[in-house]
Amino acid sequence: MTMKIDSLDPRIARADVPTENEYLVKRDLDQWETYEVFHQKSRGTHHTHVGCVHAPNADMALLFAKEQYARRMKCVNLWVVRTANVHATSYDDSDMFEPATDKSYREAFGYKNKHLIQQFKESQDTAH
Amino acid sequence: MNIDAIKDLLMRVADDDLVMGHRNSEWTGLGPILEEDIAFSSMAQDEVGHAQAYYTLLQAVLGYGDPDQLAFNRKADAFRCAKIVEYPIGDYAFSLVRHMLYDIAESVRLEAMSRGNYRPLSELAKKLLREERYHFLHAQTWLRQLGNATEEANNRLQTALDELFPMAYGLFEPTSFSSELAAEGILPLESELEKIWESNVEDLVSQSGLKLPVVQDKTAYYGGRQGLHTEHLEGMLREMDEVFAIDPTATW
After folding, report:
1. Could you tell me the pTM of the whole model?
2. Which element (helix H / strand E) includes B70?
3. What is the pLDDT of residues A98-117, one digit of tens each?
4. pLDDT single digits (tens) B45-104
5. What is the DSSP letter of A49?
6. Which of A93, A96, B27, B202 has the most CB atoms around it within 10 Å of its CB?
7. How far is A33 from chain B (nearest CA, A)?
8. Residue of B23, B25, B35 to mutate for A, most A C-beta atoms under 10 A
9. Beta-ladder partners of A81
10. B243 in contact with A at a CB cutoff of 8 Å?
């Protein structure tokens, strides 16, 4: 005779789950594919990657994405993209991102413009 | 404006939402897949939240007691929910089909209440309707998906629909205040709401490869609005208020 799971949670006790359950063995590839989820906070801003969901198609992915990723954060729009459709560089090639010589001149902090921004802000304040 | 009629209306819509929400929350942690578990649980919370909003309105405007006392400290026969929301969750097909029938009915009712001329209720209904958009989308997406999938999926949904569709008419059981509510422009007669609901349900059901069963007696599951319930309600309420009942005066 198989033992039933005896739980303090009445829902589990009701479910009559045998302690030794053949279905507890997870079969390979029994998951749906994944979709990457992109979230937009307000109109006109970028969509930001927030994670992924398992789904059998795009409609279901959107349905799940709404509750997984837009339940708490403010959101006006969601994108989902099949993970399989994302093309990526290889980590084996990550050397190519490391500059061999000093390229700091490409970085924005090389420009001395902070005082110009400040000046502009002040002129806006006095205009009001 | 008849206060008793408004109380009657608020109590039945609140009790529908509370019992439906609690029942659906029984899937939390047991849902078919993680993402769906979260989505279904979140909608269950929405329903409980709707109930809380109605109980709060009963308290604020109509001088009823504390919403927690209304939710957790009443006997089954004081509840005015329809019978369909009381039944145990069954298998996932049963819960999905019930969610579809219920949320379409809730949308129709909220839509009507939002146009009604009892201001506190119409304002609240407008707010609650926003959440019903997702509830409908959820029901629609799942039903179309599974109804048009395998034979087993379609059969399971059809079995659930055959069982639940006659029960759902209980959501439109009129009360002794119905004609007054309609005359005062607060809520149209249940028979009118029922027609809109039937046609919305029929649309979705036909898109999902399912058939509506013929219902001989639409009043077969009446009684809930008069406090007559299935044997399932009492058990569910005792489970729901188990912690509350330890000390009903505790502050949470």
Report:
1. 0.89
2. helix B67-72
3. 888 988 888 777 678 888 88
4. 999 999 999 999 999 888 888 999 999 999 999 999 999 999 999 999 999 999 999 999
5. E
6. B27
7. 13
8. B35
9. A36
10. no
